[in-house]
User: Fold this.
Amino acid sequence: MNTEFAVKLDWQSDRRTPLRWIASHVLRNKLIIVTLLAGAFGNAALAAVIPVEIGRAFDAVLKSPPDIATLGNAALVIVLSQLVRGVLQFGRNFGSEIIGQRLERDTRAELYTSLIGKSMTFHDQQSTGDVMARATNDVREVNLMLNPGVNLVVGSAMFLLMPLLFAPRIHPALILTPLLFCIGYFISLRYFLVQLRPVTESVRQRFGGMNAILAETIDGIETVKGAAQEDYEIERFESGAIRYRDAFVRQGDLEAWFVPLLLLGLAQGAALFHALALYRDGAIGVGDVVAYMGLLFLFGFPVFISLFAYSQMSSGMAGARRILALIQGRTELDENKAGYAADMRGAIRFEQVTFGYGGRHSLYDVSFEVRPGQTLAIVGQTGSGKSSIVKLINRIYDVDGGSVQIDGVDVRDWSMESLRRQISIIEQDLFLFSRSIAENIAFGQPGATREQIEQAAQDAQAHDFITSFADGYDTVVGERGVTLSGGQRQRIALARAFLTDPRILILDDSTSAIDSATEDQIQRAIERASQGRTTILITHRLSQIRWADVILVMRRGRVAAIGTHEELLRASEAYRRIFAR
Assistant:
């Protein structure tokens, strides 16, 4: 499967089906699984000791005189067996908890590295809120599926075995009722799980939808408040919450019709009738009747607990399917690790490039060339395809037709890591992380020294405002840099680009939020930064357009004109209109 910058894990999970995927995670803990199974079997077997010994005690009490020694032995066996049972139960629960926590940890790591490796085309099609719901709540449901889900299912399965093993020792005929109950139990359970699967999947999907509404509203809270649409957004969220609640209620309705509860009552009645009939015929004694009924009551645990445990397992499997769907999501781009890797000169060539988003074309037959060290300015109206051009250079997206070449090599033949490390893009929609200013500047160069960070900030005219903060370069900015002004965010982004020392520098309208007083300083910084490297400017600033070596005029996804400022003023009506405005 194609992936961008895949981070290799220590092992590879089996992703053919959700069940195989979970099993491949769980089976990494073979010793703990053995402990869990041994603990579950020992717990159930020692639970069966209680009714058997109580039956012995009844027979001892009914003797004349009472057999005190047998009674004392029965009490001692019960006490000792339950002490051992407690140890085994602890081992089972502890092992189950370890497996569940490891599963959650490994699932989060696998999902996160998978998401990091997906292409922008993939992420453009995803709802951030739903992805977050899968990465948090669904992953947690997978953990709960193991513990307590599978833990209780395994434990309850062992309890189902005990009456089948111990009842024939009292009398061979007494296996009939436990056997019929187990058959009926598994038939009804299978029917229950078939009905439960789509319901639990609906619950998980509705939760993801509700979370998507929440994330979208919080992300756009400034727009919501600016338009005074708080009440409308509250109604949207309540609508999503109601859909989630309704799905959860449907699950509750289905669980209310859990047939094994009825079968348990019928089995206990039939067992008592059968045991009394054998007692009347003298085939068994009073103690045997008591022991047999005690064994039948062991069915109560798997029946009552399975209603919760199997619902939890179904929810976990629904979550696993949603997680695996993300992990297996198709990614169009490949990092091409074995591809071309060399120091760039910075020559860029577009040859009859066609490109579009989701089948809607934004570029048609685009061709141009930029020599190493030149500065290219791209101008045009909104939606003319300017940003699409620069996103093809570093393979954020791939062309639909034609080719984009750097130093004569198609970008698809470059190693993606080598390609992107030598290209720096400062976009119009800047993104800063909720970290210190120094960490944001050094994001593309994690090993940079403080001196290098400060020099980059000085080049970007950001040093003065940074040092005016109480914590200076250690000041933590809010998410997306909301605690900074637009101009401050853009200067930090410029400093980040200067620090990486790229061979190709792309500025996508990156000085739009800088005031006129700062513009001349920023302009000089950009001019210094562009020395010796290829620079692409998407801008409406005439001061920047003038000094570009080549100007590309875009109109409706096509190249309308190309040339120098003076050439275009003479020959291009479209450029004269842009320049006049």
In short: The two ends are 49 Å apart (CA to CA). The chain has two domains: 18-327, 348-580.
